[in-house]
Design a protein that fits this description.
3 domains, 5-stranded parallel beta sheet, alpha/beta, 8-stranded mixed beta sheet, Rossmann fold
């Protein structure tokens, strides 16, 4: 058991005077149940209920009065009610549309009750079988473990504060890059990290990756709306991992015969399940950064470890000394995207990359990040500043003077001038500092 950063966010939710029932979103096996179990220890009364169990589901289906329902749940959970706060955790809530509807009445009639619901397949059933009570619930997203959480799991939490404040002495740079390469190799799924922390053995993780892959494939029947969509989703889950970090086309994806409409629908379903994300470009260097959905998206999966295992590139990590060289740089983009996603617990936050609007231009910046009203360009590259041509072109149009390069070198800040004479500050961010990006931008 190791601490997840979202615990602090959950505490803020619990302390808010405007608290509503919380729906915790996240892909299967990212640790939702475990996190709420840990959080529940901070309450005098904790009532965990899994609605995949028929008897638990029956309780919600047969009781309309939430006060009566709560009393029965104390009996069902075999919990003697104590004075103080009560947290009700409804897991796999998508199994009961009635339970989803009752969230509204918990909010209106039992505002003193703390309610958290979760369900890996919840989003895929919305608008088909379930309707959420609008304005009566709030949301939070849980992603695979970040590098900071990985350090805590392997007993290296002594570096965390130094990393979060960007004050790590350079003498420790090589050690932290070694840890980050290990993290990039095995990924951030909690069970994978737990097993690695216990055994320090890469080979023992294969069984966990297989279990995760089989779980996602077995969910296809629940994700899909028809037989064609089932087939397309299965195909993506079998062949799509090799395209992590790459621009893809929907029509004929991965040499298939599927049309863009069929593939697009399947990808959107998997996005709802938070198994992957299609990252679309923007042509803007200032707000609003509207996504151009007509252009080719990048495919980013939920976890680099599953990508590495399924795409058979684990050995490449062990043979290379430069993370940005692994798998033609795609592995570095995948893990950088994963770390950027972990910066926010808000549902619906999407990554974007930048392309130049000028016809015939090939300028492309790997990602953009919003900070304090600024659109910050982020490149995932090693090498000299002169090779960051696309970044220079972005900064020639940007109304601010801050850019970021994620690399394997130590932390530094360069004063750079573009060919057009624009000057800007380039933050050279080692991979292990990505989780501290907001704090570093505040300082700069």
């Amino acid at each position: 058991m190791f601490k997840r950063s979202i615990i602090d966010k959950l505490r803020q939710w619990a302390e808010s005077p405007y608290r509503k029932p919380l729906i915790l979103r996240g892909a299967r096996q990212v640790g939702k149940t475990t996190v709420i179990g840990q959080f529940g220890e901070e309450f005098e009364n904790f009532l965990p209920v899994n609605l995949e169990k028929e008897d638990a589901r029956h309780i919600f289906e047969t009781h309309d009065d939430v006060n009566e329902l709560l009393s029965i749940l104390f009996l069902y959970c075999k919990v003697k009610q104590l004075p103080g706060r009560t947290l009700l955790f409804i897991d796999e809530i998508q199994a009961s549309p009635r339970a989803v509807a009752q969230l509204r009445y918990f909010y209106e009639e039992l505002p003193e009750l703390y309610v958290i619901a979760a369900g890996s397949l919840l989003e895929t059933t919305l608008d088909r079988h379930i309707s959420l009570p609008v304005g009566r619930v709030e949301y939070m997203a849980l992603h695979p473990c970040s590098f900071i959480e990985f350090l805590g799991a392997i007993g290296e939490e002594r570096y965390v504060d130094l990393i979060q404040e960007a004050e790590l002495p350079k003498v420790f740079h090589r050690r932290l890059m070694s840890h980050f390469t290990t993290y990039a190799l095995i990924g951030g799924m909690p069970e994978v990290i737990r097993r690695y922390a216990a055994s320090n053995d890469f080979l023992s993780l294969s069984a966990v990756y297989n279990q995760l892959l089989n779980a996602y494939k077995n969910d296809v029947e629940k994700y899909a709306g028809n037989d064609t969509q089932k087939a397309v989703i299965r195909y993506i889950l079998e062949e799509g991992w090799d395209f992590a970090g790459q621009n893809i086309t929907l029509g004929g994806f991965a040499s298939s015969s599927y049309k863009a409409r069929e593939t697009g629908e399947a990808f959107r379903t998997l996005e709802k399940a938070m198994i992957l994300e299609l990252v679309y470009p923007t042509v803007n260097t200032m707000l609003p950064i509207t996504a151009d959905l007509k252009r080719s998206p990048k495919l980013i999966w939920l976890d680099a470890g599953i990508v590495n295992y399924t795409a058979h590139i684990q050995k490449e990590y062990l043979l290379t000394k430069e993370l940005t060289d692994v798998w033609r740089g795609m592995a570095a983009e995948q893990i950088a995207a994963q770390e950027l996603k972990a910066l926010s617990f808000d549902v619906g936050v999407r990554l974007k990359y930048w392309i130049r609007a000028k016809r015939g231009s090939s300028a492309e910046v790997d990602f953009v990040y919003l900070h304090d009203g600024m659109v910050i360009p982020i490149e995932v590259k090693s090498g000299h500043n002169a090779h960051l041509r696309s970044l220079h072109q972005f900064m020639a149009e940007a109304p601010h003077q801050v850019a970021v390069r994620i690399w394997s070198g130590p932390f530094s800040i360069d004063d750079v001038r573009t060919a057009a004479g624009n000057s800007f500050r380039l933050i050279n961010l080692p991979f292990y500092y990505v989780g501290s990006l907001p704090r570093i931008l505040e300082k700069v």
